[in-house]
Inverse folding.
């Protein structure tokens, strides 16, 4: 298995009686992916550079595991609290941790590209909340109905992979990837700012709604005192969030410093999030600060262990006629006036199972774009990865995982943005090179530790976090929001949409030097039009994702970006302009006849961007291994 030298179809006996020819139509791409990755499976575990296990690589694995754990667990806590509120306690933090950790462990073991980080995303939280409202409208028990949504969606994933539909992802050029990456970053920043500024600006959650202490005579004065304390807590968390964000960004870019030795700067950059979060959390326990924060620390369940959010078994009964496992919870949370009407539990009916196909299609559309873009970003050519991709096999594995989580009543997960490409960056050796113009430095990446260990370690840690929830509860809410701001801003680095947006307000005399990646025949007015179209799509997707009920359709709008790029943009821009702004994708690698691969690594792929075109340790959204030829031609 680890050292297979024959093509997968020979191992499976598909060369007999014309079966290999039939395999070329069905399952060829999955088999080709396996043929490329199986010979390298052993090196994924035993080496750090494809040949040897070096100490520097082990240190990289440790730092990347810790960084990925922090960037996964903190969003999981927020998403768990959102789902607990939106689903009336039927889904919460335990389910999100089980899904994120469990799917990540399976992915690290059998996924084709282990650098991609798997977890429950904010778009999935939006989708799950809409499914809860739809289940209420259909009088369907939520968890069994969601289980069927996941089952149908998982089967669709596997079918798309087997029939080669994942080739369509090669149509996702930088136009679509930049928009989606920008949308994810804006969502992170928006959620953090709303949590920080809402209590200050609108006074949300400042009113006292509890029981007055014994002996309280002047309730009006007590209410005013409570508001003052809560407002002070909100300002304290705002200060902690700002401090966490500033420290994270400073340490993240520590290799640009002149302080300390190069080894110390690398260490600070590798552990940026952990150091910042630990320092600000410790600072929050200074008595004055602790009193100001009050109860504004992470809200996690009190009990430990692998227990669901309410009293039920992990496997969910999905058979027609199955009763709602949350029937008692619904009655307990309902008002006395409606409790009598809820005494009869909801029952899953056959037509409700059939109706779950439509939201399953929406979930498949979301994951088809979201996961594959996340995987592409984690394998961006600027990282110079040595091992091949496995998009079709990966999507079939994701489909199997989505199917399984439906059986246990937990939300599905997929590739995380920006965590996946930031994970690859954490495993890379980063060097600073001065720009040819002398206007700063750019980061270059090499020697990425292509391993399964970091993903396995961080996923196992997330899974085990269900036993350590009280330890997580010591983190202030403001520090969590600061990490969200960091993840959002880190996702902008290298996104050309972000760079072109700022160029629109840049001094015109300085603009030409910053547009060196453009073709000589591209007028700046065309750049402005292209940027405005992308920003309009970002706003449209963001607004649609925030609307109740309609939000379930926002994955379709994301999928529409691909045909818009193929059929609409060529009517607005010349081929030379599109080649400069959005270089074409190469033909899919798996379309060629697969050949046996030796465990020897492929030559490093050159970065597709000219000198200084995409500065930063961030994410270049889109791109391919042959785009350098297009830029050289320009």
């Amino acid at each position: 298995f680890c050292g297979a030298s024959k093509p997968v179809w020979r191992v499976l006996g598909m060369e007999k009686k014309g079966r290999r020819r039939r395999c070329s139509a069905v399952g060829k791409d999955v088999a080709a992916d396996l043929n490329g990755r199986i010979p390298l499976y052993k090196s994924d575990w035993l080496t750090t550079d494809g040949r040897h296990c070096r100490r520097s690589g082990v240190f990289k694995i440790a730092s990347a595991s810790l960084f990925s754990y922090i960037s996964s667990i903190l969003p999981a806590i927020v998403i768990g609290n959102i789902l607990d509120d939106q689903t009336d306690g039927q889904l919460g933090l335990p389910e999100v941790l089980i899904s994120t950790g469990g799917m990540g462990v399976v992915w690290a073991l059998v996924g084709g590209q282990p650098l991609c980080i798997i977890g429950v995303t904010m778009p999935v939280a939006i989708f799950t909340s809409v499914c809860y409202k739809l289940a209420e409208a259909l009088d369907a028990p939520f968890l069994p109905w969601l289980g069927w949504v996941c089952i149908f969606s998982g089967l669709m994933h596997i079918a798309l992979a087997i029939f080669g539909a994942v080739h369509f992802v090669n149509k996702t050029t930088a136009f679509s990837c930049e928009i989606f990456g920008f949308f994810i970053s804006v969502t992170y920043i928006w959620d953090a700012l709303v949590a920080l500024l809402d209590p200050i600006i609108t006074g949300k959650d400042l009113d006292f709604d509890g029981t007055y202490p014994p002996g309280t005579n002047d309730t009006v004065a007590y209410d005013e005192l409570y508001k003052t304390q809560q407002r002070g807590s909100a300002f304290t968390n705002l200060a902690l969030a700002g401090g966490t964000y500033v420290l994270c960004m400073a340490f993240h870019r520590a290799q640009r410093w002149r302080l300390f030795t190069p080894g110390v700067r690398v260490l600070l950059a590798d552990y940026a999030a952990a150091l910042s979060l630990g320092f600000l959390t410790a600072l929050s326990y200074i008595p004055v600060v602790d009193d100001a924060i009050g109860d504004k620390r992470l809200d996690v369940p009190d009990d430990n262990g692998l227990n669901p959010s309410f009293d039920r078994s992990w496997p969910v009964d999905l058979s027609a006629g199955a009763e709602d496992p949350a029937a008692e919870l619904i009655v307990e949370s309902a008002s006395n006036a409606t409790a009598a009407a809820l005494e009869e539990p909801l029952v899953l009916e056959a037509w409700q199972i059939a109706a779950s196909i439509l939201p399953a299609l929406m979930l498949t559309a979301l994951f088809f774009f979201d996961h594959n873009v996340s995987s592409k970003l984690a394998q961006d050519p600027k990282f110079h990865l040595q091992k091949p991709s496995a998009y079709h096999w990966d999507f079939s594995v994701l489909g199997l995982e989505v199917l399984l989580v439906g059986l246990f009543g937990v939300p599905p997960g997929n590739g995380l943005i920006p965590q996946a490409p930031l994970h690859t960056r954490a495993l890379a050796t980063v060097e600073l090179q001065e720009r040819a113009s002398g206007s700063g430095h750019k980061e270059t990446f090499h020697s990425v530790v292509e391993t399964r260990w970091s993903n396995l370690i961080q996923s196992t840690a997330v899974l085990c976090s269900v036993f350590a929830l009280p330890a997580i509860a010591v983190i202030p809410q403001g520090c969590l929001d600061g990490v969200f701001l960091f993840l959002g801003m880190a996702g902008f680095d290298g996104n050309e949409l972000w760079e072109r947006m700022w160029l629109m307000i840049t001094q015109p005399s300085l603009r030409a030097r910053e547009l060196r990646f453009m073709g000589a025949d591209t007028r700046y007015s065309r750049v402005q039009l292209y940027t405005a179209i992308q920003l309009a799509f970002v706003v449209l997707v963001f607004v649609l994702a925030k609307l109740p009920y309609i939000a379930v359709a926002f994955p379709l709008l994301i999928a529409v970006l691909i045909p818009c790029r193929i059929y609409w943009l060529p009517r607005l821009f010349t081929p030379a302009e599109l080649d400069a702004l959005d270089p074409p994708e190469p033909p899919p690698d798996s379309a060629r006849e697969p050949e046996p691969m030796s465990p020897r690594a492929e030559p490093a792929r050159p970065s597709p961007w000219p000198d200084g075109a995409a500065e930063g340790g961030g994410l270049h959204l889109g791109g391919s291994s042959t785009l350098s030829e297009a830029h050289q031609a320009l």
About this structure: The chain has 28 helices and four strands. The CA atoms of residues 70 and 274 lie 7 Å apart. Confidence is low (pLDDT under 50) at residues 1-24, 335-342, 586-634. The two ends are 45 Å apart (CA to CA).
